[in-house]
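Researcher: Please generate the 3D structure of the following complex. Treat every line as part of one assembly.
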Amino acid sequence: VRDWSRRRLVITAGPTREHLDPVRYLSNESSGRMGWALAETAHKRGARVTLVTGPTSFPDPKGVTVIRVVNARDMLAATRKAAHHAHAVIGAAAVADWRPHRVSRTKLKKRSTAPVIRLVANPDILATLSKERRGPFPRMAGFALESNNLLANAQEKMRLKNLDLVVANSPRALGSVRTRAILIQTGRPPHRFSGDKKRLADLILSNLLEGIRSHD
Amino acid sequence: VRDWSRRRLVITAGPTREHLDPVRYLSNESSGRMGWALAETAHKRGARVTLVTGPTSFPDPKGVTVIRVVNARDMLAATRKAAHHAHAVIGAAAVADWRPHRVSRTKLKKRSTAPVIRLVANPDILATLSKERRGPFPRMAGFALESNNLLANAQEKMRLKNLDLVVANSPRALGSVRTRAILIQTGRPPHRFSGDKKRLADLILSNLLEGIRSHD
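Model: Done. Output below.
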């Protein structure tokens, strides 16, 4: 049995919500299940886990430090802080790519003409933290959700964001218990996986934490 | 103890989700708690309840017919069908006022320029069904969520949509257990309420079902 005690791990999970006004927001289908599976598996094997999560309906996993956030910018701030001394960061959150360029402080009134929402890009959490790192730590893993050209798009994402590991899957994975995925790592052939998210969590963690000694 | 057996009631609950693409959507903070409280209270008192609900994290209430939908147009279709022989319809759902004018069949790619989302108005479920009714049934009740001018805006909504009862509250009510509200009915002074959503459910049902005989 693998023992990952003293490995410090930061995991992001869930969707983010990007508000238009106090009640309306833009979000996505992520349930947080993959992040929870990663956090629970890593904790069981002895790792010290911080879970930075957007809104989900799951209770806090036991033994894990949980930081709950709403939007992408808050998730970046919390993840950056937690990642400071971490061996690895796994971005399992489905961070909203965009947010409304303006948030109304009062609920937008229904008018005769429907509004047009101008969006602006959110920061890319993994790309930002990967650019900021000096040295091999934290190792960084991300997910690539692609409706088509799964492998090619995921490999491109890995290169652009300078990640150590990418898990490519289709939008069907969102919210489900089982999933199909391709694990991509530098210098290794892509590894195809089909099964439940707990087994996938184990595979990701084994690959990402491999060879990290507890005194690193 | 009131007995509402044979009263047929349709309740809408939760938020709706209005998709931009297979994974992204526009939604709101509604939890479904108010609709669940109404459905459970009505069922306990003997009513036959159909609950038409958007995505929530609550399990189906016992003894209630539950129809799960995603967006406003599907909620309108399901509610219209269920309301056909109902004594009352209570719109406790926070139906999205707008939806993206176009839904992409594949996940929108992150591009150098962020997209602009053109919205179009969703149908107003209560206003539509109220316009379609011939005679006093179904009686119709709705909620008015207003950040300011609570009473005036809610009375205007009641008139425009031709409702029998309106519950006015502030966006703070969304997702919470306790709530403050004003009950508005034709020919009666506004009634101020503060307490948990189960007690509010009881008050709404008592007022709305009052005087309906079981053979109506």
